[in-house]
Input
Amino acid sequence: MKTKKKNIALRLIVLGCCCVILVAGWLLLKRLEGEKPALMLELPSGYLNLSQTISVTVSDENSGLRRIWIGLVKDKKEIVLLDKNFPAAGFFDGGKIHKATFKIKIEPKEIGITDGKAILRMVVRDFSWRKWWRGNRIYIEKDVTIDTKPPQIDLLTRVHNLSQGGAGLVIFRISEPCMAQGVYVGENYFPGHAGYFQDPNVIIAFFALNYKQGPDTKVFVKVTDYAGNGGRIGFPHHFKRKAFKKDVIKISDRFLNWKMSEFDVEMPLDSKTPIDKFLKVNRDIRKANYRQITRLVVKTDNIIYWDGPFGRLPKSARKAGFAEHRKYKYKGPVIDEQVHLGIDLASVAHSPVPASNKGKVVFAGSIGIYGKTVLLDHGFGLFSMYAHLSAVNVSEGQIVAKGEIISRTGSTGMAGGDHLHFGMLVNDTFVNPVEWWDAVWIKNNITAKIEAVSDLKRKGSSHK
Ligand SMILES: [Zn+2]
Output
């Protein structure tokens, strides 16, 4: 009996020991985990400006976060931005916190750091027993550039006279390369571009006053450097009012029966009356077509392809002008009003259409109310548009010479007869093509300015 009891006791002791060993082993495995904490830094660019907030998210799934340290190192000087110890949960559990995010506002001037290259140093430890209880560590260094100075803008053109619906050019030099530089005319933004002049800091920006913007529209150059510092400057300008014609267009049943079926193919317009369809096309599709055009003009080449005045459709008569206000009448009453943002030119049917100037084909296809359309990029945001074509002879990406036949006139889209709708755009603003047909206007407003800046730069470099 005694030996039996002894045996049971012995077995219990062995079992107990095994349990202790197992628990201890499990604990050691858990507390000696070797996985490093994770760190995620959010910094919009590699730059720190006057006041920059960075976001750091740290996590450690296993033993939890023990400590985070972040410093900014510049010229061997180390400024502590964050130093925090996290609480422990208990001997067996490690840390209480497994994930944390810190938003750190860095104001270099306030902490005595000057502009230039610096290092953002980040260290995070966890509650593991590794490294003699110091825990697993993640150590990250990120190169940053401190830039607290706003970019300076030096205006290189002096005279900027624009009419409503007209275009202009401003040239300026920036003190450092920028991520954005351009002209604001009211709400409209016209990106400027480097690449014309050898100096990459000399920016050329075509801009426009749209047909309805008044003489008191605010205009200024705005630049933003890579650190996010902004600079802006107004410039001398004179904006003139311009009177545009008014016109009445009578919509006939013949026109509706002819045209609306064309749009039915493109998009089903429910089973409404022809006039409902017309209104949908003239309003909604017109707007959608404009949005499509604004997307097409986003990309432009940093080359001035064109030379001299733009060409007009040969032997043609003007049928409608730029920014004409149109009232549409159907069986008497006015049913709609729109503004015509190109010039209609009529010649004999299916006349060959030459490229008005040298450019790159950025679109050749159909655009709703415009029918078959060609869009040419002449560089630096200047475009010409040819609409209602019957045939298109070019394809996207092709460079066409001035006068090269790119298509034939027609009556596709919302055209009641064979003609060419010729439009010009500066960025996404339709401008008056008459200016671009005029050699004197081009010389005074565009080319003379470019030449003056080129001369200035040539003189400047000869002194070196
Ligand atoms: Zn037209």
Remarks:
- Residues 72 and 79 are 5 Å apart (CA to CA).
- The longest strand covers residues 116-126.
